[in-house]
């Protein structure tokens, strides 16, 4: 039974990079490195705030929770 209003997507095209389709491997590694750098930097912020007792004030707790929120929401669900 199929519901009306749902589409099945089998591919994803980044419109800004459609002319660079021959360099898809290079773009993949550039975006992978960017993602890993952001994930590492967010983890580093959380680690520093959790390990330093002086940084347990509400402002730093907010920064740590914001960093955790951003690192968990940096994925795209295509389903």
From TrEMBL:
The keyword Nucleotidyltransferase does not apply. The lineage of its organism: Eukaryota, Metazoa, Chordata, Craniata, Vertebrata. One of its GO terms (biological process) is sensory perception of smell. GO terms for molecular function: G protein-coupled receptor activity. It comes from Pagothenia borchgrevinki. One of its GO terms (cellular component) is plasma membrane. This is Uncharacterized protein. It is a multi-pass membrane protein. InterPro entries: Olfactory_GPCR1. Keywords: Cell membrane, G-protein coupled receptor, Membrane, Olfaction, Receptor, Sensory transduction, Transducer, Transmembrane, Transmembrane helix. It is found in: Cell membrane.
């Amino acid at each position: 039974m199929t519901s009306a209003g749902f589409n099945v997507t089998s591919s994803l095209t980044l419109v800004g990079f459609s002319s660079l389709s021959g360099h898809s491997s290079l773009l993949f590694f550039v975006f992978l490195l960017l993602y890993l750098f952001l994930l590492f930097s967010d983890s580093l912020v959380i680690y520093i705030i959790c390990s330093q007792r002086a940084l347990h004030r509400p402002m730093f707790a907010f920064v740590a929770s914001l960093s955790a929120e951003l690192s968990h929401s940096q994925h795209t669900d295509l389903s």
